[in-house]
């Protein structure tokens, strides 16, 4: 009889005592969780060295000695680069043919997203997303999470980032903290938000059929609405964003660019679109934004609606996708005070903002597209 069985039969409290094998596995899992940050740092290193682009320029497959040469690295760094590439292959960033006489590395879909200089309508280079999420200031804020939890704060509570650094991320005051950070996080955010937009527009064309006008809140340079206009040229499109964004927007007669604050006013249209906007904000702020959206659109009978593209947390997507969604939620919590939400949490926000109904038009990977009705 094992110690575990003896304790269970003796009637003692039902505390399961791990076996030796379970403890050894638990220790290995603890190593993995404690050292996950090194995977992020090694990925950042690969992006800064431009390894994906070097492999692409070499024809998509490269040996380690050729990679050292392509990157102009000192030859004595080869053994260390091998260890970096081994981790990145194991983590799914690159692929390899380890059975070949000479080990080679090649791109896979993940590292393809990090290749520089490849024009594609399907995606923008995601390297700035990697650099933005692994910036020094965000890491410092995450390291102070325990201190943030211990502080007794009156609502609205600042994000851990703002509490530590004194300024929020994605704000006009962010450059006062670090100009380079502000530029990188804005580029990273734009690259992240653009990926998959063409799929949504192509596969959810019923969203825009019959629309006469559309306001894109936080629409930046108008890239998304240009794609919509290309497919639906009859739609009159307006882009609302902050003055510092609109002043750099291209001037033409295709899109009406409006400088303003979505918390105060949204230009009226038959539909208002929020593409990856709300996850930056707290529940209370989301309700305030959506209340302004409701004021800007006509009744449901007249075709009024709000189109929302957001992450919808869902464990049924599988462990890897679900974990990615939860990590994204932590990223928003630490950096902006916002968060990713499941369908029930989104429903509650919609109803509190005064909307009567909604539907999920489509799910595309981790993303979902809502139509919300007044």
SS field, number of helical segments = 18
Major beta-sheet overview: 8 strands, mixed
Order of helices and strands: HHHEHHEEHHHHHHHHEHEHEEHEHEHEE
Runs in which pLDDT lies below 50 for 5 or more consecutive residues are: none
Proportion of β residues?
Answer: 15-25%
Measured distance between first and last alpha carbons: 66 Å
Total count of strands: 11
User: Quick check: average pLDDT?
Assistant: 92
Structural class of the helix and strand makeup?
alpha/beta
Helix content: 40-55%
* Bulk shape: globular
Instruction: Round the Cα radius of gyration to an integer and report it.
Output: 24 Å
Tell me about this structure.
By secondary structure, the chain is an alpha/beta fold. 47% of the residues lie in helices and 15% in strands. The chain contains 18 helices and eleven strands. Strands 4, 5, 6, 7, 8, 9, 10 and 11 form an eight-stranded mixed β-sheet that branches. Strands 1-3-2 form a three-stranded antiparallel β-sheet. Helix 13 packs parallel to helix 14. 29% of the residues are buried.
């Amino acid at each position: 009889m094992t110690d575990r069985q003896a304790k269970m039969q003796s009637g003692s409290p039902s505390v399961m005592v791990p076996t030796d094998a379970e403890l050894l596995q638990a220790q290995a899992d603890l190593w993995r969780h404690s050292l996950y940050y090194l995977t992020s740092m090694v990925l950042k290193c690969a992006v800064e060295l431009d390894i994906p682009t070097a492999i692409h320029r070499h024809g998509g497959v490269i040996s380690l000695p050729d990679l050292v040469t392509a990157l102009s690295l000192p030859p004595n760094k080869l053994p260390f680069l091998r260890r970096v590439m081994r981790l990145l292959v194991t983590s799914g960033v690159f692929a390899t043919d380890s059975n070949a006489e000479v080990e080679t590395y090649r791109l896979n879909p993940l590292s393809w997203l990090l290749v520089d200089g490849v024009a594609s309508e399907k995606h923008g280079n995601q390297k700035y997303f990697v650099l933005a999420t692994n910036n020094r200031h965000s890491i410092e804020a995450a390291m102070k999470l325990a201190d943030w939890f211990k502080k007794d704060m009156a609502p609205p509570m600042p994000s851990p980032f703002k509490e530590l650094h004194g300024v929020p991320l994605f704000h006009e005051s962010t450059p006062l903290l670090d100009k380079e950070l502000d530029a990188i996080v804005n580029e990273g955010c734009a690259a992240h938000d653009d990926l998959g937009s063409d799929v949504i527009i192509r596969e959810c064309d019923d969203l825009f059929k019959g629309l006469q006008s559309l306001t894109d809140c936080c629409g930046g340079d108008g890239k998304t609405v240009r794609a919509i206009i290309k497919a639906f040229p009859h739609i009159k499109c307006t882009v609302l964003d902050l003055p510092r964004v609109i002043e750099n927007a291209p001037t033409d007669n295709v899109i009406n660019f409006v400088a303003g604050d979505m918390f105060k006013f949204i230009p009226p249209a038959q539909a208002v679109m929020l593409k990856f906007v709300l996850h930056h904000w707290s529940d209370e702020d989301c309700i305030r934004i959506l209340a302004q959206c409701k004021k800007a659109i006509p009744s449901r009978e007249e075709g009024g609606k709000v189109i929302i593209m957001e992450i919808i947390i869902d464990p049924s997507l599988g462990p890897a996708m679900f974990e990615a969604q939860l990590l994204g939620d932590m990223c928003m919590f630490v950096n902006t005070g916002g968060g990713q939400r499941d369908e029930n949490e989104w429903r509650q926000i919609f109803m509190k903002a005064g909307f009567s109904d909604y539907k999920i038009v489509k799910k595309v990977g981790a993303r979902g597209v809502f139509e919300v009705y007044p």
